[in-house]
Amino acid sequence: MSKIILAVNAGSSSVKVSVYSAEKGQSPTQLAQAQVSGLTAPPATLRYERGNETVIEKQEVDDKVNGQRDAFSHILDTLVGDHDLPNIKNKDDIGIICHRIVHGGDYAKPQLISDGTMHHLEDLNDLAPLHNANSLGIVHLCIQELPAARNVACFDSQFHSTIPEHIRTYPINQDIARKNRLRKYGFHGISYSFITRATAGFLGKKPDDLTIIALHLGSGASVCAIRGGKSWDTSMGLTPLAGLPGATRSGSVDPSLVFHYASDVGRLSPASTKELHISRAKEILNKEAGWKALTGTTNFGAIAAAKGSTTSNDNDEDKKKMRLAFDLFVDRICGFVGSYFVKLRGQVDALVFAGGIGEKSDLLRAAVVEQVKCLGFALDDEANKAKIEAVVQDVGKEGVLPKVLVCQTDEQFEMARTCAESEEFW
Known about the structure:
16 helices; EC 2.7.2.1
């Protein structure tokens, strides 16, 4: 028996949907994929690919899309309306919809979505403010519009359920911590699960024998120490805010910084902080920080280009800001690589770059590896500059261990694979 699976990945500024055909217990086959991007930086545009053919390159959809729910609806209409996609003649042809949910709390595996699951996840919205609410809005829509489909929640946090207690625990009152679920959860877990399986296959190892430091670097960025195929530690924490800076996130900072940031006189007093509500503090650190605060842009490609260029305008203030952002990002990444190398006791098979920036920025890879070469990592310059075409590609110097790899991670495939191989979701 075969089913059509939709894998839905709702981010803060885009919605991606991949379509798969799957047999129970077998790896799925991708049929099509669509994405509406630019939701927070109009115009919103649609890209649609069927197989290896680009059907729609960049179609403006502002008049039809206002937020993530509308974006998903538009993508669904595009799929159903495509006569050259015979697998989906109507909405009832869709058997399983798997949703990327960033924060799953204590869930250690994907869940079939029920009323109880929804209530639990809605309680977690505040812990992943840029993502969870958007994803759950699409889940509600799917329940209403596609009643024949089974909805499955796949959690970014579930991969990190193996982090040891002494690493995931915050040194605060544990009665309060347990009551309020205050501990390290970690995120990007769906990506790290894919990276682990793909890297193990590339190296000819079983996942349980693999130990790597993986870097998921994009607008949201994190690092993960993977020991024996399982998460041992990761840079994000209770929420995705901790760890590395991102496009609009600050990453880890002194917790009291936000109060000084909001004070006109630079010192703490009841008068200077009484209007600083927690929601405003979250807004500052999640949406008004990161590269955007340093440079005015969330485009890391432009930041890397400024770092890599040498022209007569090298003293240009904008370039200085971008170089600062680049150097700061490299420094924070290397700090985690060094820390995790020690936590893994130097037994590391590879340093693996993934995510949009990790896969595309050879300049960033070169800067990171240069700084951590004291740990034994080494790049092959030509291999690093070559186009990344394979799922896993070696960019390290030949014969040098640990290896340096690039993995083109695929969260939608990982979700669809999990659903296809789990009998409970059929």
